[in-house]
Here is the input.
Amino acid sequence: MNKFFMAVAKLALLASVCALTGCKTTDTAKNGSLASIVISGHSVEEVKQTTVEVFGWDGYKQVSDLTFE
Here is the structure.
């Protein structure tokens, strides 16, 4: 078979696999959140302070407790 047709066949197979498997988000986020994580070994206050600092470095503005825009 021609190299072009082999490449097209591989691309079609890849597209088929992607279409059949799809993607799915987990249901671990609570209360309409977009993401959630579990951090162990640190106090709630340590996590909050670090979160505010890191999001601030990236230009996000804090709009409530742990919500950023």
Notes: The chain has a mean pLDDT of 76.
